[in-house]
Design a protein that fits this description.
Layout: E1 2-8, E2 11-24, E3 29-40, H1 46-57, H2 62-69, H3 83-94, H4 97-106, H5 116-131, H6 136-145, H7 157-186
Antiparallel strand pairs: 1-2, 2-3
Length: about 230
């Protein structure tokens, strides 16, 4: 910033400018070059200055932008994506899946189960499957390090497996309740159900006959065939 002063009959008026120094080979020294004038200091439009700073900060990394605009006692730690998880979490709650899970934790004999943490872990796994499909170990790291999930700042691999064990125990009741939640919410008349069979496979007792393959894994041509 550069300040200039003009003398008037009523006193002095200060003007603010955005400037930088350039080397003047004739004068043999650096001289200020005005890039933009903000006008009189006593009439400074601070909102316009704030908009200018915000526009310039878009050219910087978040850490650098914070370093030049925030108090020196603050430091940039991290930034995480939130949009995809936010949408999925609201859809999850709109279908009352969290409420259904919490209700299942209170059902049955014995001490009621606190399923709040379990429900959050299961949502995190579902969000990972939708946004960044990976293994349980990688999903736990994704939840802990890559995204922001409400009420789930971090999770370990074992917690994921324990949550899935509980899900296996209650999956029939959970599927029944979620089905009715979706049907009631969307006013559906269900005549046909589709099941995901992608993990389905079958085996036979006898092994397949060996097939010769080339370096690309393709069946090699039969060199024993006689041709006339």
């Amino acid at each position: 910033m550069k300040t200039t002063v003009r003398k008037t009959k009523s006193g002095q008026t200060r003007y603010l400018h955005l400037a930088h120094s350039e080397w003047d080979p004739v004068a043999g020294r650096s001289v200020p070059k005005i890039l933009f004038s903000f006008g009189r200091e006593d009439q400074l439009d601070k909102n316009a200055v704030a908009r200018l700073v915000a526009s310039l900060c878009r050219l910087l990394d978040p850490a650098d932008a914070l370093a030049v605009t925030a108090d020196s006692e603050l430091s940039f730690l991290e930034a995480r994506p939130y949009g995809g998880v936010y949408v999925l979490d609201h859809l999850w709650r709109r279908l009352n899946i969290d409420t259904v899970m919490n209700g299942l934790g209170k059902a049955g004999r014995g001490r009621p189960r606190d399923t709040t943490a379990t429900e959050r872990v299961l949502f995190g796994l579902v969000a990972n499957r939708a946004l960044a499909p990976s293994s349980k170990l990688a999903a736990a790291d994704w939840i802990t390090s890559d995204v922001h999930i409400d009420q789930l700042p971090e999770v370990g691999e074992q917690a994921c497996y324990r949550a899935m064990d509980w899900l296996h125990d209650v999956h029939e009741k959970l599927e029944h309740e979620v089905f009715h939640q979706v049907a009631n919410l969307l006013n559906l008349e269900v005549d046909l159900l589709f099941f995901d069979t992608t993990p389905t496979y079958f085996e036979v007792d006898e092994a397949d006959a060996p097939i010769a393959r080339d370096e690309r894994g393709m069946p090699a041509p039969d060199t024993d065939t006689d041709t006339d």
